[in-house]
């Protein structure tokens, strides 16, 4: 909307008819009363005698015309219904452009040599610093990653070693215990065998004594009953009976 | 000054007035040129004071000067490419000169030198001659091929060449009139509504209340003018970059 206002205002200005209209409204003012935008107060008083008097006075007046009067003239031109920007008869217009080139040229020169290089240096410094820091950070990360990999490696190796030694120890312990158990079993077997042989011997002696006692008793009983005394037959019969009762014969 | 004799005097704000007393009058140094000097001084101050500390982490002022620097640098390298790097200080000076001219002009009692067609045309002519000289220096005679695109049928040359020539020659006109018209329209509007405030304010009892309306319009307009100040400086700079691109690359 403001854009539209701009456009209309500009159209009004450039077409100049409303400006002329405004000037018509203004028209009585410059002639009637003193205005800062109107001709200088002195000019009316000066111009009258100049027009009335001789050429000499006119020349003097022309010589004494100052830039202020040029300006006043420019102002009266503007009052006549034009934009001051389009009043190219004003000598200040030319000088304004000349000064523009001088001042703008100075700014361009300053920019090339004094204003921009320090900013460029600072920005470049910062860029380099940030890049260096980023590089350092990247290096540090790579280092950390390498260290992490090494740690993981050594952990794995240590674990494998530990597993191996555990396995070896277990095996050794198992072998040792097996050997010990075997030795124990062997000793026990030997003891058992010994005890058995002792028992056998003891039983044999006991059986021997039993046969003697049985033979003696049988012989005595046969002597008493039958009155015969046959030592060999009795011994054989006892032997047979013992064998029949599954008693081990004496050795 | 705004409402003398109950009239709307929107144009006297653009009148050139010599400053610096007799010396200024002798060399035609107007308030317009004084404001140019002020703009150059402020730009230099901003860039020099901003970068004075050369801090790695910029403060506010340094951030501002770096922001302007990088903004224009991106503009130039984005439009022209890497070859455009050497024109960057010129575009920077142009942008800052126009921007500060527009912004300083918004201050009360200040003069807007970008509201003078002579000034904007002077800047646009500088751009025009610079781009043409760059194109001639880089491409020599091939530059004239710019006015007749390759591959177009030869019998169209009588139409195409004048059209291209006119469009090329109208560049400085459109460039300068755009800025000039925007600035003039904005300042005329501001002045017109300010005059309304004064005129309505004098209308007895309801005056001050009624004057609030144009006053609020003016408040909005000032905000809008700040936008326009930036926008027009940006447009001036980017069009310069586009013309430089054409000069460096020929299409």
Structure summary:
The complex is a heterodimer of chains A (about 250) and B (about 250). With about 250 residues, chain A is mainly alpha-helical. Chain A has 8 helices and no strands.
By helix and strand content of chain B, what is the structural category? mainly alpha
Shape designation of chain A:
rod-shaped
Helix content of chain A: over 70%
User: Based on DSSP secondary structure assignment, what is the total number of beta strands of chain B?
Assistant: 0
Strand content of chain B is under 5%
Basic shape of chain B: globular
Q: What class, by secondary structure content of chain A? A: mainly alpha
User: Mean pLDDT across all residues of chain A, rounded?
Assistant: 76
Q: If interface size is counted as residues with C-beta under 8 Å from the partner's C-beta, which chains form the largest one? A: A-B, 60 and 67 residues
The portion of residues forming beta strands of chain A comes to under 5%
* Subunit arrangement of the protein: heterodimer
Q: Output the radius of gyration of chain B.
A: 22 Å
Mean pLDDT of chain B: 88
Identify low-pLDDT runs of chain A.
Answer: 8-50
The count of strands of chain A amounts to 0
The number of helices of chain B is: 8
Uncertain runs of chain B? none
């Amino acid at each position: 909307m403001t854009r539209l206002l701009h456009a209309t205002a500009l159209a009004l200005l450039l077409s100049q008819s409303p400006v002329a209209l405004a000037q018509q409204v203004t028209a009585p003012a410059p002639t009637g009363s003193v205005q800062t935008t109107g001709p200088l107060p002195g000019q009316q008083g000066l111009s009258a005698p100049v027009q009335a008097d001789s050429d000499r006075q006119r020349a003097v007046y022309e010589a004494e015309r100052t830039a202020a009067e040029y300006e006043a003239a420019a102002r009266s031109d503007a009052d006549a219904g034009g934009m001051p920007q389009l009043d190219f008869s004003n000598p200040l217009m030319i000088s304004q452009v000349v000064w523009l080139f001088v001042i703008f040229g100075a700014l361009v020169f300053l920019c090339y040599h004094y204003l921009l290089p320090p900013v460029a240096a600072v920005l470049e410094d910062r860029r380099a610093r940030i890049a260096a820091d980023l590089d350092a950070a990247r290096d540090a990360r790579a280092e950390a990653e390498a260290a992490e990999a090494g740690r993981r490696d050594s952990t794995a190796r240590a674990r494998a070693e530990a597993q191996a030694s555990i396995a070896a120890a277990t095996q050794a312990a198992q072998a040792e215990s097996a050997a010990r158990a075997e030795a124990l079993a062997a000793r026990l077997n030997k003891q058992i065998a010994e005890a058995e042989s002792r028992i056998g011997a003891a039983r044999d002696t006991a059986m021997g004594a039993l046969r003697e006692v049985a033979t003696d008793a049988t012989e005595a009983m046969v002597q008493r009953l039958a009155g015969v005394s046959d030592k060999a037959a009795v011994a054989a019969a006892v032997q047979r009976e013992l064998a029949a009762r599954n008693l081990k014969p004496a050795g | 000054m705004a409402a003398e004799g109950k009239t709307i005097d929107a144009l006297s704000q653009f009148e050139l007035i010599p400053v610096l007393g007799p010396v200024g009058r002798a060399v035609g140094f107007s308030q317009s040129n004084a404001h140019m000097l002020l703009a150059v001084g402020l730009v230099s101050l901003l860039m020099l004071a901003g970068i004075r500390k050369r801090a790695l982490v910029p403060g506010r002022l340094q951030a501002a000067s770096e922001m302007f620097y990088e903004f224009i640098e991106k503009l130039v390298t984005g439009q022209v490419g890497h070859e455009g790097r050497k024109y960057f200080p010129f575009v920077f000076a142009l942008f800052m000169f126009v921007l500060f001219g527009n912004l300083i002009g918004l201050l009360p009692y200040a003069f807007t030198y970008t509201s003078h067609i002579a000034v904007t045309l002077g800047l646009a002519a500088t751009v025009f001659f610079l781009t043409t000289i760059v194109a001639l220096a880089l491409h020599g005679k091939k530059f004239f091929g710019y006015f007749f695109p390759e591959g177009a049928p030869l019998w169209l040359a009588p139409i195409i060449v004048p059209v291209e020539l006119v469009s090329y020659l109208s560049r400085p006109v459109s460039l300068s009139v755009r800025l000039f018209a925007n600035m003039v329209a904005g300042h005329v509007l501001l002045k017109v509504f300010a005059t309304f405030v004064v005129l309505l304010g004098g209308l007895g009892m309801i005056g001050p209340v009624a004057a609030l309306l144009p006053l609020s319009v003016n408040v909005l307009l000032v905000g809008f003018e700040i936008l326009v100040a930036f926008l027009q400086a940006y447009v001036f700079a980017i069009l310069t970059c586009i013309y430089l691109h054409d000069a460096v690359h020929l299409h």
